[in-house]
Amino acid sequence: MSELSEFLQYVPIFSDLPDEAIERIAKIGYVKNFDKDSVILMEDEDGSAMFFIIEGKVKISRISTDGKEVILSVLGKSEFFGEMSILDGLSRSATVIALEPSKVFIIHRNEFLELLTKHPEISIPLLQELTSRLRTADMKIKSLSLKDAEGKVATVILQLADTQGKVRGGVVEIDEMPLQQDLANMAGTSRETISRTLHAFAKKGVIEMEGSKLRILDYEKFLEQYG
Questions:
Q1: Residue 154 to residue 136: CA distance in whole angstroms
Q2: Three-state DSSP state, 30
């Protein structure tokens, strides 16, 4: 089995497929590399392909009416994007930019729709992922509209904990936090507010920070208080 096929086995929507199906998928797409800060997709452009992250990390963002960037999510290895345009045929709903050097596997729309026809079992995990993203979006909308600055920052931390966090000795650790400006764009606030709030959380003893790492010392308590 090729290196690409082995990667595809760990993509959630493909994980239950037999080896021969994985090998066929590897042959219908292609791999492309993007430098850090490269634009992979632009909002409102035609959507003709779906992307699977082999290496690296990307941010999904939109520009608000007042010209500010709003980061909707950050995706990493084995995650995918571009599925909405693939399914409905409409233009891209957001911009995707590489946060670090990234390698992606790309499948064009016609090939992916044919893949769904041949392997309808892919549809269930795909729908589960779309539902999860919808719930995350609902949580973000609630945070931006109802919560104070501290609550907005906590919501972003919880979102990152759910998608990137690792449990180590009862502590949830996020190995590589986004830059504070990116956190601000995710929370709909300023970089100064992010800095002030993170230090306030650390002073309260609910998180620890070490370089780019952040640890939630009591996840359940943090979730209960800020979720």
A1: 14
A2: strand
Same domain, yes or no: 155 and 46: no
| Contact indicator for 59, 74 with CB cutoff of 8 Å | yes
Q: Is the pLDDT score of 223 beyond 80?
A: yes
Q: How far apart are CA 188 and CA 70, in angstroms?
A: 7
Percentage of the residues of the chain whose pLDDT score is greater than 90:
57
Rg (CA), the chain: 18
Distance between CA atoms of 208 and 168, rounded to whole angstroms?
13
Q: How far is CA 106 from CA 40, 48, 86, 139, in A?
A: 11, 10, 12, 29
How many structural domains compose the chain? Answer: 2
Token pair in block for residue 52: 């699977």
Task: Give me the CATH number covering residue 35.
Answer: 2.60.120.10
Pairing of strands 69-75, 58-63: antiparallel
- Quote the DSSP letter at residue 206: S
Same domain, 17 and 88: yes
Kindly report the CA angle at 13 between 109 and 115, in degrees rounded to 5? 35
Residue 91's pLDDT is 85
Element housing 171 (H / E) = strand 171-174
Are residues 128 and 155 both part of a single domain? no
Do the bridges between strand 95-98 and strand 58-63 make them parallel or antiparallel, or are there none, so unpaired? antiparallel
Owning domain of residue 54: 3-138
Evaluate whether 72 touches 62 at the Cβ level (below 8 Å).
yes
